[in-house]
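Researcher: I'm preparing a figure for a lab meeting and need a structural model of a single chain. I don't have an experimental structure, so a prediction will have to do for now. The sequence is pasted below. Please return the structure as tokens so I can convert it later.
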Amino acid sequence: MSYDRLDQAMNISVSGINASRTNMEIISSNLANIQTTRTAQGGPYKRKIAVFEEKPLDFSQALSAAEQKMSGGIEVSQIVEDSTPFQKVYNPGHPDADKDGFVAMPNISLSKEMVDMVYVSRLYEANITAFNATKKMEQDTLTIQ
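Model: Understood. Here is the structure written out token by token.
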């Protein structure tokens, strides 16, 4: 395995680490706003979701990747709002209650966010493990020469 391939493998792991970190920040924001019924845009907080896509490569990287059957990693391409409807909770004393006494609550499920958080933390750990394994291979290669 050449140094370029090891560097590419490390870059892929780093891209996964960065994407996982961004996703964890989005999940944290969702959890922090689970009770937010009024935002600056009006209405309840809308759950955010990270959209991932393959990281684009420049021409020389794409040519090299095509020869080696490697990709450029992953990145968060955009952050979108979940279109799931808001939850309606009966609370006539709430300042944001409608005329029937219902309050529109954010479209966030605590259990779903917690499952997503565990999943993303495992992805983060896997990318750290892959990065460390690649780093060790690179160090071992230097001692052989």
